[in-house]
């Protein structure tokens, strides 16, 4: 048989075989779940729902937020770490991806082994707050009050949180004697601060914004590189001579082994969402800064944060009670 005829028949047979095979489904062809490792209503949940709302039309499928709170985000994070690596189960990861590996001797997942970064979504700077009734209006006043009272108590939403660790670093950087009082969430901490049970607190803006607006709490500094345009009178700690920046942060993660083209698609569309002016303004009002970048950018950030807070935990002797 002539060589060209044999080649033609081979190509024809291959074409028939390809036509007989079912077409590979284009991703996504069904709803995507975005797991939030906190209860509904908090900052992480709020950010996740905004991103899900804007992401769905870009993907052509619903993005359903599911809350799986508990064990300092370990329940929700472990759920995603053990999910199928097909891009249909994602995690709204938090700064606990960095701090849990430092604070707990064992975890039901390994961030590097079991998860892969998709996109860094938001940065959430920590604020230094005092009661509105406090005579303290600035860092100099805080130092004076600490000297007079031989130290001050500060509140946070829990041991090992980014605000707590920021407070520990602040104490070391300034020489101000501080004693940590953990509460069961930002609401309790803010109530205690407004009532004068503690002298100051460190927290993100979103959970205490209503108290700030009602003039029950007064922010006197922000641990960020720049001031918040919505609170332009609040200086950065760097401006006050304390080169401290500290932020909680959130970003989307997927199970390890998720196809690279799926990760790339999700990253591109999440980047579009984060560039949306409405989204950026919404986040800004809640003290959040839209970030974005590549999966590699987010992965490096997690690694850097892990090392940074490991040092603070070791120096301050922070321990999680069993």
UniProtKB/TrEMBL annotation:
Cross-referenced CDD domains: PBP2_Bug27
InterPro entries, sorted: BUG, Bug_dom1
Keyword Signal tagged: yes
Signal sequence segment: 1-25
Keywords, ordered alphabetically: Signal
Superkingdom of origin: Bacteria
Family under the similarity heading: Belongs to the UPF0065 (bug) family.
The protein's name: Putattive exported protein
Originating organism: Bordetella ansorpii
């Amino acid at each position: 048989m002539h060589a060209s005829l044999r080649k033609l028949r081979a190509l024809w047979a291959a074409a028939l075989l390809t036509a007989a095979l079912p077409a590979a489904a284009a991703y996504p062809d069904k709803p995507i779940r975005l797991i939030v490792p906190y209860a509904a209503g908090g900052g992480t949940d709020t950010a996740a729902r905004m991103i899900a709302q804007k992401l769905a039309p870009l993907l052509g499928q619903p993005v359903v937020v599911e809350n799986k709170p508990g064990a300092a985000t370990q329940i929700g994070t472990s759920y995603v770490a053990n999910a199928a690596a097909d891009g249909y189960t994602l995690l709204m990861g938090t700064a606990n991806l960095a701090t849990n590996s430092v604070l707990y001797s064992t975890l039901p997942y390994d961030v590097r082994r079991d998860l892969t970064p998709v996109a860094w979504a938001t940065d959430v700077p920590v604020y230094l707050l005092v009661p509105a009734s406090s005579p303290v209006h600035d860092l100099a006043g805080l130092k004076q009050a600490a000297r007079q009272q031989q130290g001050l108590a500060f509140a946070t939403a829990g041991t090992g949180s980014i605000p707590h660790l920021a407070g520990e670093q602040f104490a070391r950087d300034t020489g101000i004697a501080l004693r940590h009082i953990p509460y069961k969430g930002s609401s309790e901490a803010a109530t205690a601060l407004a009532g004068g049970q503690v002298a100051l607190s460190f927290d993100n803006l979103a959970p205490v914004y209503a108290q700030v607006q009602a003039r029950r709490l007064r922010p006197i500094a922000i641990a960020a590189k720049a001031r918040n345009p919505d609170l332009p009178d609040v200086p950065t700690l760097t401006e006050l001579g304390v080169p401290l920046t500290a932020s909680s942060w959130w970003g989307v993660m997927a199970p390890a082994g998720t196809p690279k083209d799926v990760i790339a698609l999700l990253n591109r569309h999440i980047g579009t969402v984060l560039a949306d002016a409405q989204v950026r303004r919404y986040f800004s009002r809640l003290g959040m800064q839209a970030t974005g970048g590549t999966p590699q950018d987010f992965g490096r950030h997690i690694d850097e944060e892990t090392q940074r807070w490991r040092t603070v935990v070791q120096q301050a002797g922070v321990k999680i009670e069993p």
